Amino acid sequence: MTVAIERNKTIMNEVLYNSFLNIFGVFTDGAPVKLNMEIKVLHNKAASKIYLVFIASPLEKDKDIWQQLRTIQKDFSIQ
Questions:
Q1: Residues 6+ apart with CB under 8 A from 58
Q2: CA 3 to chain CA centroid, nearest Å
Q3: How far, in Å, are 24, 67, 70 from residue 73 at the CA level?
Q4: Is the pLDDT of residue 46 over 90?
Q5: Which of 41, 50, 53, 66 is the most exposed place for a label (fewest CB within 10 A)?
Q6: For 29-63, b where at least 16 C-beta lie within 10 A, e where not — what string?
Q7: What is the pLDDT of residue 39?
Q8: DSSP class of residue 14?
Q9: What is the 8-class DSSP label of residue 9?
Q10: Helix/strand/coil for 31
Q11: To the nearest whole number, what is the mean pLDDT of the chain?
Q12: What is the rounded CA–CA span in Å between residue 29 and residue 53?
């Protein structure tokens, strides 16, 4: 297993990281799997907690699924 993480720029008080993971399919045949991932850092100052919202897909980040994943990530909120 290998993992690479790099900080993306901070956009409008949002901290984002780009990442990819080279892993293996543990639920199937053990074949290699590359996951592209983005991590959003959310600060809940009232509760003094930090949350990480992960979105991931084996598809490249220019594919349509990433628009859907980013919408889910953007709409996620801490109550």
A1: 33, 34, 35, 36
A2: 12
A3: 25, 10, 5
A4: no
A5: 50
A6: eeeeeeebbbbbeeeeeeeeeeeebebeeeeeeee
A7: 93
A8: B
A9: P
A10: coil
A11: 88
A12: 28
* Cβ atoms 57, 65 nearer than 8 A: yes
CA dihedral 5, 40, 65, 28 (to 10 degrees): 60
Question: Cα dist. 13→40, 46, 51 in Å?
Answer: 11, 17, 14
CA distance 22 to 25: 10
Bridge partner residues of 22 (DSSP) = 2, 34
**Residue 58 in contact with residue 36, Cβ under 8 Å?**
yes
Segment (H or E) for 62: none
Q: Report residue 61 as tokens.
A: 């980040």
**Section 43-48 average pLDDT:** 86
